[in-house]
Amino acid sequence: MVKPPNNRYSKYFTPILSTLVFLLIYVGLYIYLKINIYPPSENTLAYQNTNFNVLGLSIPKSLDFCGEAFPANNYEIKKNLEREFFNKSYWQSGSSVLFQKARKWFPYIEPILKREGVPDDFKYVAVIESHLSNVVSPAGAAGFWQLVPGSARNYGLVVNDCVDERYHVEKATEAACKHFKDGYAVFKNWTLSAAAYNLGIGGMQNALQRQNADNYYDLILNRETAAFIYRILAYKTLLSNPAHFGIKKRKVSALSKIPMQRISVDSTISNLKNFAKLYQTNAAVIKLFNPWLLQNQLLNPDKRTFIIEIPKDLTRDYSDYAIDLIGENGALPQNETDPPLLLPADTSSALIEYQSLTHTLKEGETLAELALFYEVSEKELRLWNKLTDTDVPKPGNILTLHFKK
């Protein structure tokens, strides 16, 4: 018998072959199970859209403040502007309220700006400062123009326990104009003057000198002042060109100013109710249209001349002015025995009838959505239901709404 040739490696061949076959079977089985049975592993990568242009919006090609051009060719500057344009959910949800406010109050503000020689674009400062309402900030700034007591007094306004003319829309506008013109006298530039309204004229001078700069856009400022001009430009675009934000074009013609009876007073009024009766109205109407009167009397030891205004037509419903004049929280003082400020004069011919309804808040609903649905303002919803700016109603809460019949 012939013996096979003696190969000293033959004894290792069989185990290696067996191992390779096993590995091939194992890998094939793993791939099969991975594809057909086990779910894919969780994707831990976060994807975020940072391309603002996919929103269908873009920065307007030509932007200016008071005729001073915006330097749109600078990437960092343009990015700061985009932040104000695109990070505002307010544009869609609250624009209708803001348009109505502008229609009411720009006719009071614009003539004063023109008379004082201040560019018309400064009306947007009041928009971003207070949303055109007599609000009070945590720092004590008040009124449409958010003046602090010291600045208000420096510019000729009376601010004491009895009178606070920061709540007088037209007088406060005149005071703000003085500040703007003081800023322009220093900087010879309206953009810097507007920013100095937020930072202070001295603060702006220090920033320019310290950073060796000569314009607003080159400055490194605190967060609020750094966004101030960009925010003005965003609101200017919204109110002058709403279609840019995808908002349906609406009638934005200004409303006429309310015809007023103007009563000159240079002495003390000891009882506002008795004073109101002389003019066939009540203290609630006096307080509504003269929110600078903080008490139910007018102490006037210095014999200053004050003008108290009363609407000539006391049968008209002025409730849409009330929420702006008495502040977003309705916080300006009034006597508890007076009629609600949301109603006109207390006469049988002047009472306005309202109908009310209730809405039970559902899971996921917000006040902004509810206001949009019922075509009211979120501020009115909060006022009617005694909610502060920070209160967040919960699902199941019953909210009350009021509508004129």
How does the SSE layout of this entry go?
Blueprint (H helix, E strand, L loop, with lengths): L9 H27 L27 E2 L2 E2 L5 H12 L3 H27 L6 H8 L18 H6 L14 H19 L2 H10 L1 H11 L11 H18 L19 E6 L6 H7 L4 H7 L16 E6 L7 H7 L28 E7 L6 H8 L3 H7 L13 E7 L1
Antiparallel strand pairs: 1-2, 3-4, 5-6
Describe the fold and architecture:
There is one protein chain. The protein has 14 helices and six strands. The chain has 405 residues and is mainly alpha-helical. A two-stranded antiparallel sheet has the order 1-2. Strands 3-4 form a two-stranded antiparallel sheet. The chain has a two-stranded antiparallel ribbon with strand order 5-6. Helix 4 crosses helix 9, helix 7 crosses helix 8 and helix 7 packs across helix 9. The longest helix is centred in the N-terminal third of the chain and has 27 residues. The radius of gyration is 33 Å and the shape is extended. The chain starts with 9 loop residues before the first helix and ends with a strand.
